[in-house]
Design goal:
The protein folds into two domains: 159 residues, Helix Hairpins (Orthogonal Bundle); 60 residues. Helix content is 93%, strand content 0%.
């Protein structure tokens, strides 16, 4: 379990560049790695809890065996006082059996207690590493998102200055210039047309004035 956790940490620390080179999304992969780590921690917590429970059971059994040793010792002494040597011998015999049990159980308890301390220490280490990787994940996610954004912007900027875009821009510029030229031409034609009409109106006005002047001279007004 703990070896798997260390392998997971190694993957996150050393294989990020490999993920970036592939089609894998590093943000999603980092989230998955942390989820796997979290599951390993939960399994480790369960194992530690079981070990501590086993330790407590052995401690209680060792204490019970030692209590029976003390009890049989007291009973043997009481039997001797009562002159019951045979009863005292039976009590001492059971005392010896309980002493053997107490010795074995005490050794088992001490070993279980040591194992519990080791597991708790490793669990604390796993949790510490998880917190460190969680913080690192946030930093890596921010860096990955920033890099992806910069890549998109750079690609957009490069496409803006591309030959196809430039040719399209120039084509539209030519079209606008052509529209402007056509507008100026139509204005010139309109001006010429108005000037010609004005000249004819002026001519008609001069003839009318001349006719009126002639009639006055001939007394024909």
């Amino acid at each position: 379990m703990f070896k798997f956790f260390k392998r997971m940490k190694t993957i996150v620390s050393s294989e990020l560049n490999s993920m970036l080179d592939k089609a894998e999304d590093p943000v999603k992969m980092l989230d998955q790695f942390l989820r796997d780590m979290g599951e390993e921690i939960q399994e480790a917590e369960t194992a530690v809890a079981k070990q501590i429970a086993n330790e407590k059971i052995l401690k209680r059994k060792a204490d019970d065996a030692q209590a029976m040793v003390d009890k049989r010792q007291a009973q043997a002494e009481k039997a001797i006082v009562a002159g019951e040597d045979e009863l005292a011998k039976r009590a001492l015999q059971e005392k010896k059996e309980y002493e053997n049990q107490a010795t074995l159980l005490k050794l088992s308890y001490e070993q279980a207690e040591n194992d519990s301390q080791v597991l708790k220490s490793k669990l604390d280490e796993m949790k510490k590493e998880y917190q460190e990787m969680s913080l690192k994940k946030d930093s890596l996610k921010a860096r990955a998102e920033s890099a992806q954004t910069r890549t998109k912007i750079n690609r957009s900027m490069s496409s803006v200055g591309g030959d196809e875009s430039r040719r399209g821009f120039e084509r539209m510029e030519e079209k606008v210039l052509r529209f402007e030229a056509e507008a100026e031409t139509s204005e010139d034609l309109s001006t010429q047309s108005r000037t010609l009409d004005d000249e004819f109106k002026k001519l008609d006005s001069d003839v009318d004035d001349e006719l009126a002047e002639l009639k006055r001279a001939m007394g024909r007004e």
